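Hello,

Our lab assistant flagged a job as stuck in the queue for most of the afternoon. It eventually completed. Since we weren't sure the result was trustworthy after the delay, we are filing this so someone can double-check. Below is the sequence as submitted and the structure that was eventually returned. Let us know if re-running is recommended.
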Amino acid sequence: MIDDLEKLFEKLPFSLYIQLKHHLYADQLIEIILDLGRRPEARFSTGPEYISQKVISWQDLDFITKRISRFSTENRAGIERTLHRISGI
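-- returned structure --
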């Protein structure tokens, strides 16, 4: 499971990658929410937490979408060889 988390974290911009990789509760991560114009949030089994003061930009979202599989007609994409799923709204 930790290897799968690493595959997920590698798809993120470097500043978010570092924050999550070294987070005390990284192994308890439930989801990451990256909304345009808002601060990135991670939800852990211990509760939600903002993981950066910087708001998410189009460039951040573009960086990520170029590193994952294409979105399906249901607006979902995946990370190869993991159970991680990305939803686009």
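-- support follow-up --
The delay was a queue issue, not a problem with the job. The result is valid. The first helix runs from residue 2 to 9. The first strand starts at residue 29 and ends at 33.
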